[in-house]
Amino acid sequence: MVLKKKVHLVSLGCPKARVDAEMMIGQMQAAGFEHTDDPALADAIVVNTCSFLQSAVDESIDSILAMSDYKTDGRCQNLVVTGCLPSRYGKELADELPEVDLFLGTSDIDKIAAALQRDLPERTYISEGSFLYDGGNAPRVKSMRGASAYLKVAEGCSRSCTFCIIPKIRGKQRSRSVTEVLGEARLLAAQGIKEVVLIAQDLTSYGVDLGDNRSLITLLEGLETIPGLRWVRLMYAYPWNFTDELLSLIKDSDRVLPTSTCPCSTSPTASSRPCGATCCGRSSSSSSTSCGRCPAWSCARR
Prior knowledge:
Blueprint: E1 6-11, H1 15-30, E2 34-35, E3 44-49, H2 54-68, H3 70-73, E4 78-83, H4 84-96, E5 102-104, H5 112-116, E6 124-125, E7 148-152, E8 154-155, H6 166-170, E9 174-175, H7 178-190, E10 195-199, H8 215-223, E11 231-235, H9 244-252, E12 256-264, E13 278-279, E14 282-283, E15 296-301
Parallel strand pairs: 1-2, 1-3, 3-4, 4-5, 5-6, 7-10, 10-11, 11-12, 12-15
Antiparallel strand pairs: 8-9, 13-14
Helix pairs in contact: 7-8
């Protein structure tokens, strides 16, 4: 019997990166690899990185170097670095880290199985934008404990906020269709998931790139009909396009929870102006000021 090669994956950064990692684990397993939580037992190691802040860059570099030790002290023969760090720094990163065998940017993580099989001729693959997971082009293995799961509805961001590098790393926003997202939600519910957390870089812009400003409302209405699904949370919901219709839906819903994580800049002044320090489209003198119409806001300071 041929033993399966084992892969250890380290995932850093935000929930969106976590979904990317879950998709990569699914691809690995579909290609015949076995996931292991012990890097000392791994034949290959994947580090899925973040580079949003300098502290995240430092953490990613430290993790890469720590995992590279297993090439001499363990069984690792293949070290792959994926995600935002390669997308941000490209060839410069490859030159500085000879310990790494292969780099995949956010748009190329679907090549992870080929990377682990050493079927890719180049060392660096960094295309523009991000890989848009649709639930059908790759299996996904949930890594969260309990009955909650993230549900990514879009990739990238079309805003140009002065404090944010995401559009450079992940490209302009590209939304999944409502049909695709609902299909994945039904699969999650069938697996026993009771709560889904909707994530995107700019959740309230979901579907705008597809020409539909009501996509989020349509999606929430559809999620309310899925048997077994009890709670829906909104994450990274910017004030723009938080319409009266959306607020009414949240108020009247038994499943959509009346709270939302609203990303804010670290300053209520200059750095917040490019993305509009507003609540529901109404101007505000401070990024922490509410118009009084919104549910309880949780502000994720950057």
